[in-house]
Each structure stands twice: as C-alpha cells, then as structure tokens.
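Internal ticket #5521
Category: modeling
Description: The requester needs a full-assembly model to guide mutagenesis choices. All entity lines are attached below as received. Residue total reported by intake: 797.
Assigned to: D.W.
Attached entities:
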Amino acid sequence: MRVADGKAALRSVGRPRTVDAAQASLALLLNLVRTGTATTRQELERSSELGRAVVADRLATMIELGLLREGELGQTTGGRAPRHMQFRQDAGSLLVSAIDQSSIALGIADLNGQLLVEHHEAAQLDAGPEAILDRLATIFEWLLKETEKPAPWGIGLALPGPIEKPAADFETVSVLQTLRSWQDFPFLEHLALRFGVPIFARSGVQTMTMGEAKSGGGRGLSDIIYVKLGRSIGAGVISEGHLHRGAQGAAGMIGHSRTGDELLEAIAGADAITREGAAAAEDGRSPYLAQALARYGEVSVVDIGHAAQLGDLFCVELLGRCGRMVGEALAPLVNLLNPALIVIGGVVAESGGDSLLAGIREAVYRQSHPMATRDLQIMRSQMGASSGLVGAAQVVVEELFSPSILRGWIGHGSPLLHPDFQRSMERYSEMLALKTATPTGRASP
Amino acid sequence: MSSKSLDQRQRDTATVIAGLGPHGERAVPADQIQLTAADADQARARRFSVAVVLHTTTSDWSKQELAGIAATLGLYSAALVEVVDCNFDVELQIAALNRLAGEPVDAVISIPIGNARVAAAHRSLTQSGRKLVLLDNAPTGMLPGTDYASVVSTDNFGLGQSCAAMLSAHIPQGGAAGILGYGIDFYATHEREIAFRKWMSRNRPDVTLVRERFAELDFAGQAALTMVEKTPNLSGIFAVWDVPAMKAARALARQGRDIAITTVDLGNEVAIDMARHGMIKGVGAQMPYDQGSAAARVTLAALLGLPVPPWVALAGRDVTPFDVIEAYQVIWHLPAPKAIIDSLRTTSEGQS
C-alpha cells in the first residue's frame, strides 16, 4: 500500500492539478502585464513559456474578471500590429496610513501603488487605539466617498516601532505593545473588519524606505538605506531590490547602538536635541533660541534647525555633532551593504538642514571603505511623511500580487474572495465578539 | 472657562498654524521668510523676471494675491513679466506652463488647477531650469526640491476649525449643522471640511452633521435648500468658501429662512452681509496680499539659491460682524467700502 502511494506521489511530481496550473498561469500572466515586463500576446507567450491557446484563454478570463483590458496598438513588426494588454489599476483601491507619535497621514492609492489623494493631521498616539481607529475610519470613509474612488482591496499601515512578521498570510499581529493604552487591543483586526479588507502592517521606517525607493531619491536604485531621525532613530534597508525585514521583522533599530555609554537615540534623537537647545536658550549660549523660548515658552527642533540656518553657532555645532554620531552608526552599514544612496528623513532631518547632513557625511566618509563610498550619495528626504504612504501602498501591492497570495484569489477576480482571507475575517469577528462578551475593564478615552 | 482651556481654544482656532503641509510638513510661518540686506542687494543686481499663472485673475482673492506678488517683487527689482489667467481651464494651464518653459523667465508662481492632470506640466517647467513656487497646494506625487521649490498656502485646516468654532455658538445643544461642500476633488476645500468635522466631533459631539455638495456654483443655493428640507432642525451651515455661502444665504432668504452661516474669505458681499447682521455670522479669512508677498520672497530666495522650506503657511484671520471694518482693512489693504460702513452704521443706529 505504501509503495503504491509512493508511486502515485512520484507520478504527480511536476504535474500540478489542472486547477492549480490554471491559477499559476493566470497569476504569472497578470504579473507580467502589471509590471510592464510583457504586454502583447507575443511577448507574453515568450516570457511565460505558455502556448498561444493558453495565453489567449487566460487573457480572456482576466478581461472578464475585470483585471485586464485591451489597450493601444503597439509597433508592428510586419503583419498586424499587436495590441497591448493593460492592467486595470482602477479595479480596486488601497487605503494607506502612516501613524506616528504626533501625526497621522492617510491616503488612497490605485492598484499600482500610485497615491491619488493624501491628508496629514496632528494626532497623539498616546490618545489610545480607539481614538486613532475612529479617526482613521472617519477619514477613510470620508475620502472614499468624497473622491469617488473604487472600493478598497486592502489596507497598508505604517506604525512606529518594529512590527513582527505574522505566522501566515492574512494573519495579524499585535502592535504597539510598548504603549500601555495599546496593550491587548486588537487594532489590526478592528480595522480589517471595519472595511472588510486584508491589512498589512510594517514599521514606519520600513514603509518610508519603500516609499523613497519607489518615488523618492531612490527611484530606480536597488540598494538604499533610509534613516529616520525623530524622537527615535531607525534605519530601513533595501538590498538588491528587496526590503530587508530580518528574522522577526525588527531589522534596522540603529538607535539602539551604543555611542560611548549611551544609546544613540538618547543623545542624537529629537528629545536630546531639544533638551540641549532649551539649556542653551536658558544660559544664553544661543541668542536665537533664547528669543524663541521667550516667545513660545519652549524650544523645538524646528527652531533649532532654523537657528542653524541663520548662522546661530551653537545650533550649527549641535546639529553637526548629532550628524556625526548618526554617521558613525551608519558607517558600519555602508561597509556591510555598500548602498548607492542614503536618504535621511524624519523631523530632525527636515529641520536640521545642511549642518546635520555635513556631520553625517563627514563621519560616513571617514569611517567607510573608499570603494563603498566612491559613488555613495547622502541626501535629505524630499517626500516628508508622504514616503510612508507611498511605501505602505507598495507593501499592499507586493503582498496582494505575490505569487502565493495571488494564486489564491485570481480565479475569483478579487483578493476579498481569497478563501484564506475569508476564513481569517470569520476568525477576527469571532475573536472580537468574544472580547466584547468578556469586557476587560478597559476605559475608553 | 479656565485660562488653560482658553489657551487650548486659541490654539485650536486659526491663531497658529493648525494643519500640516501637503507632505505632512510642519509649517514655516510666512513672516520667517525674510531676505537679508545682502540677499536683497544681490537680487536687485540680478534683475529677475517672474511669471504668474492663476486659475482666474478676476476674483478679489486673485487681485490681492497679484498685488502682493507685484509689490514685493518690485521692491527687489524683479519684473513681473506675465500674468496668465487660466479661467479654471486645465488645458489652458498646461499650455501656459509648457510655453513658459521656453520663455525668458527665471521663475514661475503657479496655482495648480486640478490635481494629477497638471502635475506633468508643472514638473517639466522645473526641469526646464525655471524655479517653481506653488500657491495653495502641490499636486499629489510632486516633491519639493525636485519638482518645485516650495508651496505657499493659507492654513486651510485652521480655517475649517475657526469656522466650526464660530458656528458652534449658533447651534443649540443636540442641534444639527450642515456642510455645504464642493463636489470637485480640490485639496483646500477638502482640508477645510475635514477640519470642520474634526472640530465638531471633538468639541460638539451632540451636533448632528449633514452635508450637501455642489459641483457648480449655480447649484449651491439649491443644495442649501435641500439640506434645510431634509433636516428641519438645521441651525447652521458651513460653506467651504464665500461665493457659495452667499448663494446659500440668498436662496434661504427667498424662502424666508434665517440660518447662521460661517464661511472662508471676506468677499465684498459677505462683508456687507455681516455688517448688516445678516446670516453670515463668521468668516475665516485668507490674507491673499500677504500670501502673494510671501510667495514673492520665497521665489526670490529660491532664485538666489538659498534653502527654502517646502511649506510656508499663513494663518487665517477670524472675522465677526463686530470687527468687519478693521478686518477688511487688514485683509484687503484697502479702506472698507462705503456700503459696509453705512450698513454697519444703519444697523447700530437701528439697534440703539
């Protein structure tokens, strides 16, 4: 009996069941068209190594499902001009949000990850998950209605701090467990249920890295490092075209490297800079900051950056020193990864200007191998918080169209009909119903 | 009210910049953009040429914006060589930008009409080597530094919050307020409406919000009437700018209705209505002359190669029926028209 089983198994090697084969070829062709690798029937046959009849059948299926459409005529190479196939990026939309300590950004993107509309506003993370959830839902619903965009296919979310990798597709993870008000709150499940779509979360630094690679300074480059200088300091790495997430999803926490006896972010983060600025305002070392303190009652990183730009010596020196410390933490990464570009973002970078950048360059160039820095560029981000939104959209696109997930839904025409996703939605609702049934005593904000 | 909550209220209204920039930037207030004496000398020696591309040149806002730009450029010996009136036409704007990319101008100040459709033309103007300063908003996807030098705008989020705070006084506990929204994908009116809703949900959760939209100005009056019919207990309306606000006021008056309205911008008609203690109870006003002046300074700084912030913002000014004359002078840099002064006198005599 066991022998017979073994034979059957052997025979099926390399011969997937017909349904699997159909899904696989549909997925393959869709991705070829979507990424622009091959768009005419002839190119598709060549790239996919599928026969003419199969390609014709699969394309017809996808046109019927609303995923592809016939586009313009291409260049003729003798005979009839071929027709280009087009991916319907408006078949659905993607909701994206980047949540930070003191602000939230929201947007809607098309299925190519192109941002169509965005909105940014102040919000306090420590107001608790219910308040943030409510705000996100309110604005998403408003934006969808107002701008008349197609129904969403997924949500991309950027959150501060590392985000663990889920155990399987469509599984969720707990987020922001370091904040007391967020502990045990099923944030991702709530949001997914509210909109009935799958949700994919990454750390803010990782989405910003992806955003810079897609639309910012890193466009067209396959090796970049993004560094976020805010209250915390973190780095994102794209190496040979892929975001490096690490074993647990926690890659890039360079703010935790030691500089002397201190953590880097404790001496070069926004809080440390503001603290030093306030001290200099009080004891008169910085005349500009003394004025700012008198006027606003506090000193901010923005004031310090502005002062440095106006030539306030203390602030020039402070930002330069901060830049050198960050550069010293970056140099080992440059030696290890040989990036083509380092993009510096976050509130300190936005305000810090040239003094900060000069400090970073000085340390990176001094401590890196000359070959690794031969063509290395170090620039300030131009995308601001938009990079997090563009990156979050890119995360959803990569997930929904990854061959393993795509094969599960392409036959149905929408990821919302993916059997695994539908099962996970049932699981979320059961879980939340259970939570509501047994209140934990949490007080709403 | 404790002093702390008063502080908070002031912070919540337009006295400071409440919103974030088109890419989530923190605002740099317009008055921080100043040229030093050395910068000014250098600018005067180089005699720059600047063109301006506007959605229209006939509105009060545009006239003041242009006056601010022209006066400030003139101070630094920069010539305003062309003003393009696009008449709200996307194609006209694209054609104008493409043409300017080949003309002998050093910089262009433009207000993008429509979101994504005009992005490419703006981008190619920058690629032609000219400096580009945007008014009000950057089309989605355009980046500061690469695609444009800076965006100079009013704090639209703050304007929406102000209008909510001013309208709130006229809505009874448990009442209803309406939003007269613009049915076109337009960044500034979006921001105002989002802010209005946010302020109301935070500070007046008891108020029910309803909304009607108009895609063309001529339908604004009808939209207001529809709102009143659908919601009989409606006590106030927020209109996203002054022209539809006045259309609504007139349509409501014809039906014998009197409903409190707040809106954005102190146009002449709105100012007269306020002076007569009509339906307009409050205005969050932009300062177009100051905005134009700031845009001119940012343009000159960018032309001199100085670093310019990606978002320069101006706070709006709250106007109530009690300070409409003074506000008029501040906003329009002109004495208030006689009609406004007379109306106010008549009203106050009538009251006394």
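Resolution: model delivered.
Comment from assignee: Chain B has 13 helices and 13 strands.
Ticket closed.
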